[in-house]
């Protein structure tokens, strides 16, 4: 049988990459979370087999997610439900309503108003003959289904890193072609690890959901986790400490250094200040450890981010640990289970579109 062609999500803008990262950290719906993890890993240039291995889903599922994201963008991450009677307002009119809602009242000669309320928008639609009558609730549903929501006007960031392209290509080169004289390690912090009930999903008798306490007290403080993903084996290594200063980071690097004596370590990390502390830099230089920093606002390119999303989903969501020892044990159990099934990540998807970037894609209007 011929090998199936590789597929990837389209090139991501800066805001899209960071938005995917936020969704993998905060999404409550497991369907949306799985799709976001798959899209982010594909955007990082990871192949379909790597994604299926981490998320324990089928090859066809991952390909469908990638194709849907390329066609519909972030709207493809949300689960769609069907049913109900046919709409009284045609799809063409609904699209027209959504288009009008995204304009400003002043564009229609309505002075003194910079934005629509549902009431003024409904009155405007009726006055122009778009609809004969429409309630505010019906209008709200049309806008929601059309992907138009009430939002705060915000700003967007382009990378301020003048060496963005060079740094990105350096990281991708390490992903694509790990140096023969050492190994590539992705490092980042995960946390804070609070003792609190965490919402999640699980199989349970219908209409009788498992329940967690709603009130809690943080009497035992928080912990911080620092972890490393070894691309040569695909295994995770971690430490849990009370703080995440440069001292803890340097101690973890010493542990990694001792684990692979005689090999040069290429440590990929973001621009968090403890990672760049003078003591860290000098000790790394003296011990054959090269610190490879991701470009500014490019932390989503770190392959360990998707591992953290899976850890949160499988080990923490739906739990209510009462002590840090109990929570740490759950994390350790998951990591051991994951490492027993780990596969090397050295066979990266070199034909991913991200490999051809010469600059970061501009914001899509």
In brief, what are we looking at here?
The protein is α/β, with parallel strands linked by helices and 365 residues long. It contains 12 helices and 5 strands. Strands 3-2-1-4-5 form a 5-stranded mixed β-sheet, with helices on both faces.
The poorly predicted ranges are none
- Give, in spatial order, the strands making up the sheet with the most strands: 3-2-1-4-5
Strand-pairing-aware structural class: alpha/beta
- Element string (H = helix, E = strand): HHHHHHHHEEEHEHEHH
Tell me what portion of residues adopts beta-strand conformation: 5-15%
* Strand segment tally: 5
- CATH fold assignment of the domain at 164-201 and 218-356: Nucleotidyltransferase, domain 5
Structure notes:
- Helix content is 40%, strand content 10%.
- The chain contains twelve helices and five strands.
- The protein has a five-stranded mixed beta sheet with strand order 3-2-1-4-5, with helices on both faces.
- Helix 10 links the parallel strand 4 and strand 5.
- The protein is globular.
- It comes from Nonomuraea coxensis DSM 45129.
- This is Transposase.
